[in-house]
Structure formats: C-alpha cells, structure tokens
Amino acid sequence: MGTNSLVTGLKVFLPVMFSVMLATLIYTIITDGLPLPDRSDVFTPWFTTTILDFYINIVPIAVWIVYKESTWFGSILWTVLLIVFGSLTTCVYLFMQLMKLTPQEASEDPMYHLLLRDSFKDGVGFRDKKSLVVPARFVFGALGCVMLGALVYTCLTVGSPFHMDLLYPWMVVLLISFYINVAVLSVWVVYKESSWIIGILWVALLLSLGSFGTSVVIVVQLFRLSPLDPLYLVLVKNNNRKQRTK
Q1: Of 96, 158, 180, 212, which one's alpha carbon is 20 to 30 angstroms from that of 102?
Q2: C-alpha 228: how far from its chain's center?
Q3: Are 102 and 94 in contact (CB under 8 A)?
C-alpha cells in the first residue's frame, strides 16, 4: 500500500510542479521579458551563483537519464532538454518513467524498478573491473568544492543572499525550478536511507546548501560502494543489492 501511495503521489506531484513551473515561466516572460545576458538587473552576482548551483544540481539527474536511455540519441536529446528547460524536463521524464512501471513493479518496489534499467535488474550486485565509482567520487567531490567556493566568494564580495530585493521575477523562476529538482532528488535520498531521521537530515542539507549538499550526499553514497562495484548500484538501497544477489 505504501509503495502504491508513493507512485500515486509522484504521478500527482510531477504534473502539478510542471504546471506551476510552466505558468511561472510564461508569466515572467510576458511581464518581465527574456533574461538576456546583457540585462544587469537580472544577472546579478547571486543570480549567476544560483545558475551555477542549478546546473551542478542537475548533473546527477542528467547522469541518471543517460544511464536509463538505451540509445545515445535519446541520452543526448533528453540531456539537452534538461539543460534548456530544467525542471520542466525533469517532471516530464520522470512521469514517463513512472507510466512505464507495471502494476506489479509499482506495488513491489517502485523506486528500484524506476531507477534501474531493465537490462541491469537481474545483474544487480555483479562486480566490474572497469567501475566508475572512484572517478565519480572525484567528479562530485570537485563539483561540491566548486559550488562551495562560489558561495563563499559571493558572500564575501556581495554579502548575504537573504534580502527581499534579490527575489526579483527571474530569480523566483530560477529558484522554483531549482527546488523542484531538489524535491525530486530528496525522494531518492529518503529512499536510500534506512532511517527516516537521517533521510530528513540529508534533505535539510539539500534544501539549505543546494548543490553543495547534493554533492556531499552523493559522495557519501559512493563511499558506501566498493571501488569494484558498478556505478549504478549507488541508485538502489543496500538491502536491494543483497536480496537480488541471493
């Protein structure tokens, strides 16, 4: 019942968030114009830092999409759409993947079946001498350091971001898109943890520190894997891996 509730909840949540994001985007374009690079009223230092935050945060989503797609054309197409349309693409892609779940998959373990490619489900737990776990630790660790450096630099040179005058129309659009992706990542974070308390603490880190928090969570999850484990094992729970290999 709980797993069915999760699928149903996501099927409601994603279209609602898509509608909110699309309506906000259209309204802002009509009332405030396009966010062209020469607009100094839009491209403030904190807006630029938030853009960096946004794109680092979609890296794990893009990697998952590339992994899920069976063709390079599909991988490239969806990645480009994600870069251009942000959380709108996230909502559409996730909703499509949810619709592919069979009733049995939705009732048994929807997150497991949603996250993994069909061709890998029977081989979960197999080791790989060419594993990308160690390179992924360095990549996400580096992304986290870049974001932390950008946050510290902007705070020191411009000051705190907690000012009402920073909530101008295009910043609001960017923040809505950003936090829709954070909400999606939070579902995965809570699913991964065996304790609700730890899961909620991780989500709080994502909400407060953005892509730096996301990078920390992913690096911690990667260090729970062996260097010889396939990279895709980071997607699923530890007990999932043990059960499928028995």
Answers
A1: 180
A2: 25
A3: no
Q: What sign does the dihedral 207-210-212-214 (CA atoms) show?
A: positive
Q: Taking residues 67-79, report their average pLDDT.
A: 95
Q: Which residue has the tokens 């996730």?
A: 94
Q: What is the distance between the terminal CA atoms of the chain, rounded to a whole angstrom?
A: 26
Instruction: Supply the mean pLDDT for the chain.
Output: 91
Please return the burial class of 72, using the count of CB atoms within 10 Å of its CB with bins 0-12, 13-18 and 19+.
Answer: exposed
CA distance 195 to 71: 36
Burial class (CB in 10 A: 0-12, 13-18, 19+), 118: exposed
Mean pLDDT value of segment 215-231: 94
Residues 6+ apart with CB under 8 A from 43: 35, 37
Report the distance separating Cα 29 and Cα 33, nearest Å: 5
**Which one-letter DSSP state was computed for residue 246?**
-
Amino acid at site 173: V
Segment 202-213 shows an average pLDDT of 95
Shortest CA distance to 135 belongs to which of 227, 238, 235? 227
Q: What's the Cα-to-Cα distance from 125 to each of 51, 181, 225, 228, 238, rounded to whole Å? A: 37, 28, 10, 10, 10
Q: What is the spatial distance between Cα 243 and Cα 246, in angstroms, rounded to a whole number?
A: 6
- Phi and psi angles of residue 213, each rounded to the nearest 5 degrees, phi first: -65, -40
H-helix or E-strand spanning residue 108: helix 103-108
